[in-house]
């Protein structure tokens, strides 16, 4: 189903009121791949995702989807190609899983159009993919954190977009659920070719799951490319101000960062 | 059963329940409406009521039913629909049952302006409605601006609204005190809301407002459902957040203000209709139509109770006020318990 869409930011300057968060920023999202954006707290990661999905108008520069400016694209038209899961969406009180996932169909529905077979099919497929079909009649507020996150992902899947932007999809999840969510996104990428761009907190999970890693510092790209090239001790020092060792992860063959800290280091001479 | 079948069946089941509840609400509204026409100092049989409505001349009934009870029932039902729609729109949009226009000062603003227009400016009819609508929108704007800080947070808006409501209520009291020969009953209208003295002249502007603003609001039902998920999620789903919000506010404030100009701020109807409707329909589908029907039912039932349940006749707002206050307390206790802020 995927046509390779190009998503690109050029000369992007973003900010709120008198504060500039990102300036002169360029990024090309590789189509059909998984891109992870990492960086220290408040470095502009979420701001960047908001701008790429039309939620925040750039002060300068532009975001281009297939060569068209996203801020000039009608909201619904954009929402059929580009999906976004914000960091803290709100589930209305008492809403059931199927109902919430159904709201992802909004960009495909006209003001007066009725619910269609395609809508049911999209919701069913989203529930199956995220393994939440059994939960479909349960209220969202009764679910566990991991289940709830899968339901939100199901909602953006029901939107059936070829590009998916996710703002920290693994926050507040324990490690097994983090892996579960990231595996799910990888499945989507592999089976449907969905282009995925996500902001991640955990550098090592980002390095494991991303094809393309973007490290931000002070609103600029410090390094971008395959995780093996980007995740180095130099990058960790520049981005997080942290001394570290980077070794090869025996499980995945990807780089694995081990923070040094001031304690617990085994003496090098031993 | 395939996944699609599971999804379709559960959707159809939810839809059936919703349609059933809506049909039941319609029946109840119609029944209460009929009772309002029949019952009073003299009780007329349904046949007489029907003949009056069809325009036949029935001795006694033509005046009592046609001139007194019918405008009263129609005005009560229309005001209830408007209060229900306006209230649930605000509650849903701001994701908080306390964010109802009668709590956050919009009804108070419309009411103070209507009282001012009548008592001080000597206006009447549609002019009063216009003044009330302008005041309602003005209050909405003031609350919005005062509570705006990098977006609008529900709690701040509610607290500021409660403060504004208190100020405006005292304006109403002051205006009424300036009208020495003002009848007590008429004054009560601007404090609690009343259907006493309803006339066809009050019905016309309200009917027009509902005919224009009601469909405008219903057309936004999907966007409203999007807004419930938070502003970012809504715009990611293709909802134009700011535009939708302005449309919703103008339509909801308009409905509340027109109804208030006709009946006074019937206490807590806007506040109660949405939560009651959600309780009976379940959280599925748009809350707009069920809440409108519950609003109409609340006003009509409360008016019957106020007129006939006690030795004295109470205005409708006294009864709805007595119903709403415990619910307000319950909501505050519940948020306290769950540790939330408002």
TrEMBL record, chain A:
Q: Keywords on this record?
A: ATP-binding, Cell membrane, Ion transport, Iron, Iron transport, Membrane, Nucleotide-binding, Transport
Report domain ABC transporter positions. Answer: 7-243
Q: How does the record say this protein sits in the membrane?
A: Peripheral membrane protein
Per its UniProt record, what PROSITE patterns does this chain match? Answer: ABC_TRANSPORTER_1, ABC_TRANSPORTER_2
Q: Where in the cell is it found?
A: Cell membrane
The answer, when asked if Iron-sulfur is one of the entry's keywords, is no
List the Gene Ontology MF annotations in alphabetical order. Answer: ATP binding
Main location per the UniProt record: membrane
Q: Which PANTHER family match?
A: IRON(3+)-HYDROXAMATE IMPORT ATP-BINDING PROTEIN FHUC
Q: What is this protein called?
A: ABC transporter ATP-binding protein
TrEMBL record, chain B:
- Subcellular location, principal: membrane
- Protein name listed in UniProt: Iron ABC transporter permease
Native source species: Promicromonospora umidemergens
Provide the topology term for how it sits in the membrane.
Multi-pass membrane protein
The alphabetical list of record keywords is: Cell membrane, Membrane, Transmembrane, Transmembrane helix, Transport
Pfam families with a match to the protein in the record: FecCD (PF01032)
| InterPro entries associated with the record | ABC_BtuC-like (IPR037294), ABC_transptr_permease_BtuC (IPR000522)
Which domain of life does the protein's organism represent?
Bacteria
Localisation: Cell membrane
The cross-references to PANTHER family, in alphabetical order and at most eight, read: FERRIC ENTEROBACTIN TRANSPORT SYSTEM PERMEASE PROTEIN, FERRIC ENTEROBACTIN TRANSPORT SYSTEM PERMEASE PROTEIN FEPG
């Amino acid at each position: 189903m995927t046509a390779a869409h190009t998503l690109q930011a050029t000369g992007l300057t973003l900010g709120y009121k008198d504060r500039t968060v990102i300036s002169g920023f360029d990024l090309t999202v590789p189509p059909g791949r998984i891109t992870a954006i990492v960086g220290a707290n408040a470095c502009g990661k979420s701001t960047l995702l908001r701008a790429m999905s039309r939620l925040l108008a750039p002060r300068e520069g532009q975001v281009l989807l297939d060569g068209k400016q996203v801020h000039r694209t009608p909201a619904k038209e954009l929402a059929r190609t580009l999906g976004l899961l914000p960091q803290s969406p709100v589930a209305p009180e008492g809403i059931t899983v199927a109902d919430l996932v159904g709201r992802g169909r909004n960009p495909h529905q006209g003001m007066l159009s009725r619910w269609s077979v395609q809508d049911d099919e999209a919701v069913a497929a989203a529930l199956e993919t995220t393994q939440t079909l059994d939960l479909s009649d349960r209220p969202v507020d009764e679910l566990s954190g991991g289940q709830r996150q899968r339901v939100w992902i199901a909602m953006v899947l029901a939107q059936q977009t070829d590009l998916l932007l996710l703002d920290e999809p693994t926050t507040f999840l324990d490690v097994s659920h983090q892996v579960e969510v990231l595996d799910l996104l990888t499945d989507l990428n592999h089976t449907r070719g969905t282009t995925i761009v996500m902001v991640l907190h955990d550098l090592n999970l980002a390095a494991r799951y991303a094809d393309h890693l973007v490290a931000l510092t002070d609103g600029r790209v410090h390094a971008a490319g395959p995780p093996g090239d980007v995740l180095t001790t130099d990058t960790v020092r520049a981005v997080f101000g942290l001394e570290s060792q980077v070794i090869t992860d025996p499980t995945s063959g990807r780089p694995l960062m081990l923070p040094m800290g001031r304690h617990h280091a085994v003496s090098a001479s031993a | 059963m395939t996944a699609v079948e599971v999804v379709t069946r559960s959707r159809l089941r939810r839809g059936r329940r919703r349609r059933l509840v809506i049909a039941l609400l319609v029946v109840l509204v119609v029944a209460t409406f009929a009772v309002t026409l029949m019952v009073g100092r003299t009780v007329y049989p349904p046949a007489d009521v029907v003949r009056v409505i069809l325009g036949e001349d029935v001795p006694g009934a033509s005046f009592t039913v046609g001139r007194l009870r019918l405008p009263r029932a129609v005005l009560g039902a229309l005001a209830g629909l408007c209060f229900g729609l306006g209230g649930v729109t605000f509650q849903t949009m701001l994701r908080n049952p306390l964010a109802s226009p009668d709590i956050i000062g919009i009804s108070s603003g419309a009411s103070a302006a209507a009282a001012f227009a009548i008592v001080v400016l000597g206006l009447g009819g549609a002019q009063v409605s216009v003044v009330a609508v302008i005041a309602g929108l003005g209050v909405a704007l003031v609350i919005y601006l005062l509570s705006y800080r990098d977006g609008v947070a529900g709690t701040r808006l509610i607290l500021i609204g409660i403060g504004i409501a208190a100020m405006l209520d005292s304006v109403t009291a002051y205006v009424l005190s300036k009208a020495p020969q003002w009848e007590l009953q008429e004054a009560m209208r601007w404090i609690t809301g009343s259907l006493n003295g309803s006339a066809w002249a009050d019905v016309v502007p309200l009917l027009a407002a509902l005919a224009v603003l009601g469909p405008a609001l219903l057309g936004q039902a999907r966007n409203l459902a999007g807004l419930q998920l938070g502003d970012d999620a809504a715009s990611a789903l293709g909802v134009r957040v700011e535009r939708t919000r302005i449309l919703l506010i103008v339509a909801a404030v308009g409905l509340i203000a027109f109804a208030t100009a006709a009946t006074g701020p019937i206490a807590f109807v806007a506040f109660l209709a949405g939560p009651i409707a959600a309780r009976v329909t379940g959280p599925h589908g748009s809350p707009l139509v069920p809440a409108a029907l519950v609003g109409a039912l609340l006003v009509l039932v409360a008016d019957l109770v106020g007129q006939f349940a006690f030795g004295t006749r109470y205005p409708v707002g006294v009864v709805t006020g007595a119903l709403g206050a415990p619910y307000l307390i319950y909501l505050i206790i519940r948020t306290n318990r769950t540790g939330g802020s408002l």
